[in-house]
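Notes from the 1:1 (GR / supervisor)

We went over the backlog. Supervisor wanted to see one worked example end to end before approving the batch request, so GR pasted a single chain during the call. The sequence is below; no edits were made to it. Supervisor asked that the structure be written out right there so they could see what the output format looks like.
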Amino acid sequence: MGWRIDFRALRRNAQQLLDTYNFPIRAGDRVEDLGFAQRQMVEIVKSLASGARVLIMDEPTSSLTVREEDRLFNIIRSLKAKGIGIIYISHRMAEIFKISDRINVIKDGRLLPTQKSSSTDIHRIAELMSRNGTMTSANPGTETVIRQSDSPALRISGLQTARKLRGGIDLTIAKGEILGLAGLVGSGRSTIAKALFGLLPDAVGTVEVDGRPMRLRSPSRAIAAGIGFVPEDRRGEGLVVDHSIAANIALPRLKHLRVGGGHFPMILPNHANQLFESMRRQLRIVCRAGGQSARELSGGNQQKVVVAKWLATDARLLILDEPTSGVDVNAKAEMRLIIRDAAARGMGVLLIASEMEELSRVADRIITMVDGTLGRTLPSGASEADLRAALQVDLEAMRYQAA
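Structure output shown during the call:
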């Protein structure tokens, strides 16, 4: 006869657990219909149902709105009051100080001495995270000069994909301008980036780079048009990690570095090494030599290598998808300087970031994005609170229209 599952008892027990922790979810709801925050509640209850006394949360707010974050923090406080231990992993310092009792910094694989949250501050933790114990200035030393001209760095009209960008995207980025896209994970920001770089075969629309039309659906055409792309997954999509640093930087310029014709052109090592040394000095890449494997570098230096290969091509448009994700405080500050310097050379920059602080500090103009649609535009210097509030309003407006 086999085993029979008592689904009534299953739902009853699940609802009791949900009610115990005041989670506003019905046990019969389908997970696919839940928001990100509610799905996290389901994961939490699933862990508690197995008798867990310690929960490990790894970057739990990366896909949440402001209100969903507050709801999650209230849940964490409730769990703590019931005797559940929480290990909370995040690179967002403000939220760590908001909910933690103790803080541990892990640097270079070592666990540093524990700090009490009430007796330390963000600056002290940032110093512990930095490689040399001192903070790199986070304030850009180079002003962005937006160059008014007849041909912007990028002009998009009616960019669409079958699934995410159904309504069409219209967008312009001036030469020397850093345009930030603010939105949650899944909002369509990365879809724009991948469509522009030719990675989506269903992308259609009109795209001009520096005044010249560009055909979509081909990375080689995008590179030839002057587009550089730093993807969110730098190890999986931005680097050949088992190749040398010099080889990675040289990849987009192989045609320019080769000598000899016919079917067997050669890449002279000294040409690639010269390019590496130039980028190493310019971006302050910390490594032993150009022959070192990219796999051996820190996250911040790996990201510099990905950026370096596009700066070496004299790209006209640089697309950066989460360029400071998963790097330490000093590396973030250095990346801001690199982005500013690229814009100061006249390059257009499309900056995608989930951390509102990054957009607020770096972008000249910020556009919100919700469910594949561009929203309102905020000026340079808009505070993190302003950005979060604008995104929340756009998200609620979108949900109201869909209802």
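Supervisor's comment: The two ends are 45 Å apart (CA to CA).
Batch request approved.
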